Amino acid sequence: xxxxxxxxxxxxxxxxxxxxxxxxxxxxxxxxxxxxxxxxxxxxxxxxxxxxxxxxxxxxxxxxxxxxxxxxxxxxxxxxxxxxxxxxxxxxxxxxxxxxxxxxxxxxxxxxxxxxxxxxxxxxxxxxxxxxxxxxxxxxxxxxxxxxxxxxxxxxxxxxxxxxxxxxxxxxxxxxxxxxxxxxxxxxxxxxxxxxxxxxxxxxxxxxxxxxxxxxxxxxxxxxxxxxxxxxxxxxxxxxxxxxxxxxxxxxxxxxxxxxxxxxxxxxxxxxxxxxxxxxxxxxxxxxxxxxxxxxxxxxxxxxxxxxxxxxxxxxxxxxxxxxxxxxxxxxxxxxxxxxxxxxxxxxxxxxxxxxxxxxxxxxxxxxxxxxxxxxxxxxxxxxxxxxxxxxxxxxxxxxxxxxxxxxxxxxxxxxxxxxxxxxxxxxxxxxxxxxxxxxxxxxxxxxxxxxxxxxxxxxxxxxxxxxxxxxxxxxxxxxxxxxxxxxxxxxxxxxxxxxxxxxxxxxxxxxxxxxxxxxxxxxxxxxxxxxxxxxxxxxxxxxxxxxxxxxxxxxxxxxxxxxxxxxxxxxxxxxxxxxxxxxxxxxxxxxxxxxxxxxxxxxxxxxxxxxxxxxxxxxxxxxxxxxxxxxxxxxxxxxxxxxxxxxxxxxxxxxxxxxxxxxxxxxxxxxxxxxxxxxxxxxxxxxxxxxxxxxxxxxxxxxxxxxx
Length: 709
Fold this sequence. Notes:
Strand content: 5-15%
Distance between the termini: 30 Å
Number of helices: 25
Oligomer: single chain
Shape: globular
CATH topology of the largest domain: Growth Hormone, Chain: A
Mean pLDDT: 78
């Protein structure tokens, strides 16, 4: 049995023209379809256009809920004390659940009610979104000042420099640890991992079943248009996710249970935690509403009989001469169509999972023998690794590097980065079509796009903000010789070792972890019309005893965030130019009968080698730049301060590494294509006179069949 037929067992098949023409005719006399009486009855759900609309909205909502975690990753870290490595692993578990069940779902795909399977998957996605919010409701209210006793207002006295005898009786958080506290933390983190896994599992049937359903029952000429509309609407999902995150993170996390007397935090305070869970509720509700129509669509509907009128008029003007020459070669004899139908419909369903698992290594090795396919997939793995790391941690990087709020970072990304990705993909497809690029042209376009992307990535190493001085953590004695943290100025204080209530000395731009570490013994609130300003006075560790302001020191280069993100967006657009031509190279790099196999292996490699490990790799790299960790029950929790220069060099350097790998792979692809083209020309020049005479008879304007993509 051929590997191509075995692969049909795993990958959801999109029927071709011959297969679609014979669907529903094998069980009727004379080969004519005999529709079910229920299908004959007029119904609004027997309309493929309505299905395209519903599926576009569903995939939009699904990608919105899948991408929402990335917009609130730094907030989740602060709320539950997670490192970047752990949060990256949490984000990658979406792909784990998706990849684990794709085999089984694809196997039953041709035997089940596809719209209902899509509906069940969407309901599971909505339930997973609700499960993601459960940690908020089962956890204790967020206490941004863990040193204050629960019966006292937060930021009241515990952070001040007070003698040991008069200090509030509060033990460090490490002393309050118990087996129950640690178990609760593990339970909360475990729930989020389970929810992410279910989120991936629920998304398995949505896209492949929807695409095959549209292609089965849409008119042959309308199917590409419907799929284009579907993908265009779907690509807006991640941008909406970041926009939703920007709105939700402006609200306080415990908005449903605000403490008495309110809170003294502002959105710019580094201890601020936004309502991350509220976005999951909204997105889950949107997915649940979008899932309802799928339980009313039929298993099969009458095939669309008419081409869209406006599309017919456009093609009549632009493509009539070309279509006349393209229609005749695509026809096959009835014997060939029947043979193909036998292979797809009769042989593939007889396979078992065990049979496929046994033969899969041989199938994989046979496909990887194609050099173009292997190199292009490796290049796409590099690009996907770059995209996965950027999408997961770019909001956090902007927050830390430029001292901006999580809400503003998400707003910038949603307005600049994701639209540039869409523009890059569209422009790449237009260039391939308008320039009629062949394989060599596609390879050159991919290499040019990645070289430009690499070039515009170089300035990113130099656009950023250095870390300001933090007393007791970073020292710049050469610049400020009198600002070292002398133990003598804190000898009379009982400063908590795990406290975090940063204050800033505006005259020297030195930040202290708490007012106690600055030696401040009193707190003053100055009311204004729009907001109140908190000062700490009588500070023994501050030069000349100046008062300090509550909150971290403002960055002097926050204005650079917009130029930085514009360069990132430009690089993303240039990298996305390679999307369509690289996909065409994969289809042209393998035999015609192995295309389905190649596409399936491509997406398998992208998931396993890029989307799963890349967030963990980027998170681990970010953790290595931390200079001050918060401790929770003796374990390392969230990072409070990073070395900004090191963070920028390692994060951008990791992106630069993956881009360089993609450039190398595309350069090798172009070299192989030119070598193959050279060999083909040499072989053509040595052809027999009879073949040359045949080429002359065919006409000088006739091009080889595979000369264009």
